[in-house]
Amino acid sequence: MPTPSRRLAALAGLTAALMTAGTLAASPASAAPEHAPQHPAKPGKPGKPGKPGKPGKPGKPGKPGTPGEDLPLSELVTVDAVRSHMESFDVIAEYNGGNRASGTPGYDVAALYVEDQLERAGYETYRHEFDYDHWSEHSDAVLSRTAPDEHTFEVGTDYVTLSYSRAGDVTAPAVAVNPDSTASGCSADDFAGFPAGAVAVVVRGSCAFSEKVQNAADAGASAALVVNNADEVFLGTVSELSDIPAIGVSGTAGAELLSAGEGLEVRVAVDASVETKTSYNVLAETAGGRDDNVVVVGAHLDGVEDGPAINDNASGTSFVLETAIQLAAQEETKNKVRFAFWGTEEEGLIGSTEYVASLSAQELDDIALYLNFDMIGSHNYGRFVLDGAMELPGSVPAPSGSGAISKIFSDYFAEQGQVSEPGVLSGRSDYAPFMNAGIPSGGLFSGADGVKTEEQVEWYGGTAGAQYDPYYHTPDDTMENVNWDSVAELSAAGAHGVEFLAENTLPVNGVRSFSAATPEFDRVGDTWLR
């Protein structure tokens, strides 16, 4: 994940009516939930992106995962099978430079592993290739105050380069731009009288960083500093190569800069470049099911460069892979299910964004919904259901039907006697481009850089005051630091959601699946046939 339930169970009865399978008890700011949790009840076609071939009929999968008879998918997708895939991704990283980042041998071998497992299960896989602008920083950026006194700020603590910042090295007066407004730097009017060549200091707020930085460049600024509206530093992007160097500054360091007033001079240096690269997503889908009501299930296959990226996101990838394997052994689903393993997520959701952009209007219309699984084994986990009902203040508006997806998951947790909570729909993972296209979206997540509360310890165990995943985006995101209870519980809930929606999407998009059986009537109008 590029750097988190909710409602009481009214849909449980609908679940039972639409599905005969039973259920069994047993993820970017991954913000801590800000809403009361869902408490359990008391006991007593494809869009053919790049002309894929027609998938073959899935057959019986091999190991890992042993299908049973008359068991729900939530029981067939076991933690042991998911763990087996995660171990394979770990080995792949170990022998291929220590990571599975896009554009590396580790990513390519991981893709081959996914393809091999899917093909053994009877799927036909295809790759959706795309070109993208790869931004890389060659050395640490520099931010220092050169007047009225000298002070060097600390990279990673006080500031971080905004990705896709242009390179440059400038020393110039720094000028605050409407710093008391949440719309600081969002309008060209904010820069009226701005001295050409100065460094613009704007405050994070209501518009995109790219807008603030572009407005600064248009006003003649030599660089831009974006000060956080909270004490800590943040990871940000200007999305496309900027015209001037751009750095994100912590609220604490920013307050120090802003308090200097007139006479403030700073040095800003960024050493970075952009080059065009090619990457790919791996996709496969069930041979049967309605191709005009496709359920897309996705997880990002790539990881960060620092380490094997086991929770983020070998965990989600392994769950989606095992779900595909087990679904292939079941009876044909009513709706086609497409499994997607996204590339280049860690560089800004590029793989999923390029995929959605490649689809025609008809192909987009054929997608019923999207389910995302990004980090399901966080060390200090929570059970977070992506907030399709928009219960949290930080959640963006979600397409209609997204709330129904979240209810399917939260009801399942409640049926197992497990607490779940909404996780903020912040746009930090691969659901974002689907939501932007108007497609109902949801999924599960076990937490990243949010902090666990005392109350959450009562629900999940773990450590209050610590991050949900203290190893997020570090070399220590390893098998040893995965919480297997989290993997088991979120895998079961995720499999339940996939199975439910593969059979019927009525609560999400109003499409009800009907039996293909041909009725035999005894009469035509008033005339009896027998």
From TrEMBL:
Residues 24-41 have a biased composition (Low complexity). Transmembrane segments: none annotated. This is Zn-dependent M28 family amino/carboxypeptidase. Pfam families: PA (PF02225), Peptidase_M28 (PF04389). The keyword Heme does not apply. One of its GO terms (molecular function) is metalloexopeptidase activity. Residues 1-31 form the signal peptide. GO terms for biological process: proteolysis. SUPFAM superfamilies: PA domain, Zn-dependent exopeptidases. Residues 24-72 are annotated as: Disordered. Residues 281-491 form the Peptidase M28 domain. Residues 170-257 form the PA domain. The keyword Signal applies. Keywords: Carboxypeptidase, Hydrolase, Protease, Signal.
